[in-house]
Predict the structure.
Amino acid sequence: MNESTREHPLLELDNLRVDFHTPTGIVQAVRGLSFTLGRERLGIVGESGSGKSMTGRAILDLIPHPGEVKADRLTYRGQDLLTMDKRARRKLRGRHISMVMQDPKFSLNPVRTVGDQIAEAYRVHHKASAREAKQRSLAMLEQVQIREPARVYELYPHEVSGGMGQRVMIAMMLIAEPDILIADEPTSALDVTVQLQILKILDDLVTQRGMGLIFISHDLHLVQSFCDRVIVMYGGKAMETMPAAELADESARARRHPYTLGLLGCLPDLDHPRETLATLNRDPAWLA
Amino acid sequence: MSTWTDYLLTDSPESRRQARLGQAYRKWLAFRRNPLAMVGLAIIVALLLVAAFAPVIATADPLAQNLDRRLLPPSGGNFFGTDSLGRDIFSRIVYGTRVTLVIVLLVVITVGPIGLLIGAASGYLGGWVDRLLMRITDVFLAFPRLVLALAFVAALGPGLENAVIAIAITAWPPYARVARAETLIIRQQDYIAAVRLQGASQWRIVWKHVVPMCLPSLIVRTTLDMAGIILIAAGLGFLGLGAQPPIPEWGAMISAGREQIFDQWWVATFPGLAICVVALGFNLLGDGLRDVMDAR
Amino acid sequence: MTSVAQTPVRRRSWGDTAKAWAKIASRELSTVAITIFGLLLITFFIARVIPIDPVLAVVGDNARPETYEAARVELGLDKPLWKQFAVYTGKVFTGDLGRSVLTSNTVVDDIKRVFPATLELATLGTLIGCLLGIPLGVLAAVYQGRWPDQIARVIGLFGYSIPVFWLGLMGLLLFYAKLGWVGGPGRAGVAFQDLITPITGILVIDAAIEGDWEAFRDAWSHLILPSAVLGILSVAYISRMTRSFMITELQQQYVIAARVKGLSEFRVVWRHAMHNAFVPLVTVIAVSYMHLLEGSVLTETIFAWPGLGRYLTHSLLNADMNAVLGGTLVIGAVFIGVNLLSDILGRLVDPRTR
């Protein structure tokens, strides 16, 4: 890491757009999103279809075929990602920018052992012998608090529980030591009891390594307690960006966007029980 | 013109018939966008036309022998040349469309309903009926189709009718499988339960709800299968076990041209091309239909 | 929060594995038994519906009634049908398929002699089918809806539409008569006829074992065209199925995960997606192998290939029913065997069922 790259923020997005050209017209998944990511925890919240996952995919250059990414600016530590060729973008994946996905049941390859998949992630980016990669992987499994790494290393994905699967996933995605981790609903598929453990592991590793984290979720409470800053997305646009602490701050309510208030209003609250939960009112003018 | 398309493509149809016609029209629009499927359709329409107007299209009597004009190469008078008995190959191929169509239609007419019946009964009744019928189906599926057909023709004796019977005996199991699978899916649907709760009879459920839902995949299956039937029939004809001479059956014509393949290539080549084109037509059509009708 | 409770992991104990396998084995075996029973029933039924009187075939048309009756009793045709079937079954299981009228050998001996030639053809054909069909199918899936997909689709549909015997003739016409690239009909050139002592019965292998490379080249030049003709048939089927399996796999989340790791697209497709697609593909390859055994009936006729297919058609045209039914039975049995093998192989490839 030289001095010139250190001055730049980890990630800069300006006016990011993701369009899908379908036979029936253009579907705009993300329409003009801008933010800067430092070594912090940034939450992105929104309903399904708000474009939050597509944002993550666009950063990784993993938008599927008919999709197209455009932006005024998209840089990783000052390097322009838009003009970078496919190969260079691929080299960034895993090594510099990585992603933890929702359900380990589907995001681990069912016919290969978990250890094999972790070691593979290391060996793509580092010249290492199979032995060394295995040592690294075992150490990484230990870091995600798996007690018998040597045994788990040999297991197939269907032989591990959801919580353990997600630890394996985290180990796999962090073994090459990236600076940015995108966590796309990393705990939504897990039992509530396991969720906290996984978040703790994620939190520890991100803090230890001083990484930037983009935490994508539909869960306002989770984002509020876990992140430093929050972007609320709707229809592919950022409705507002604010410090996470302000979400819970009653005195800041007046400054909130109506959509954010709407989202908050839909949540049940033990302290203030209500007969019926509010439903969201969406104003087309927000997308104008 | 535009009022018709408006009527068909409306989002709020006023009658059931309009809704149904509209759906059919939308499927046709989707089908029309697939150029390969349209080629298939064109081939099949051409096949039907040629079969219907064979006497007009043919330039000669397909059975007329002329030993002075044996084994002539393709020319302006004989587009595809003549065979070892001096018959015009082009005219024989034209009349051959009728033989091919007869075989395919006979097989499909016998096999489709049998397969549908066995499959639907198996799927709808379940229990030991299902197990028994599926075991029988499995046994037939475990057999090589052509070899089984061969054995049957050998037992029954060669000829067009026996070839059709043999092919039909070996062709029904896949249909039964498809029909059963469809029935099983449909039977568990909530709307069938709803219909039953409204007091519909068993017969009405099967006829009005199960069969129509099975139909699209069976039609697709049948169209794709027609190519296979044509190939097996041609194979039997080639071995001398199908249609007997002098009937202009394409497989038998290839067989007749085998001896002269190195010197008079046209005798065997053109009937083979005819088989290819027609089989390809059915395959393209079936493939296109599958995309439109059978989303799964 | 401090006590990180590890959720229990399902351990693989050997007892469980053995039990699971025993269960699978018994189910497979009962399927095989029922299928073989059905097979016997069908061949027996065909033998019974033949209009040819088997007694007359033995004693001749002008036999006296007493001779006829004696022969009938000797053949067991006076017994009730179920008893005849039992006798037939017993004979089949002791390896007695009767005698061929045509060759006057026992059918079993005949089949032993001709079967390796067919095996050779079908195996190489399947190999060619896989080597061409799998990459084609993968390409079509990767570029789904774009031009490589369209090309693969047309190739596949052509493969389904060409009569194999005609393709064989055209191949001979072009590559043997016009271009002279390959050997003609038959298994070996005149100069090499019966030169190699059969060890495996598969000529190219036997020639290689003897170290006679000239004979090997000759055998190869005769083998390649009929195998390629058969192979083209299976390309259609294998590429189509590969495409559909790969499309399913490429949509899975683990493929995205593999890309996130920074793997090359080649590795993502071939190591990750293909490994998964291979599980159902095993069955497809087995089915295609069986199709080729079947296709060999017509191909062997064209190429004068002395295999089971030609034996079968030859016997058929000469109404040699023992040979026809024996051959049918053997092909049916091989079908069952290949099916079973593919089931087992499929289980071995997939860790979830292992």
Notes: Residues 1-10 of chain C have pLDDT under 50 and may be disordered.
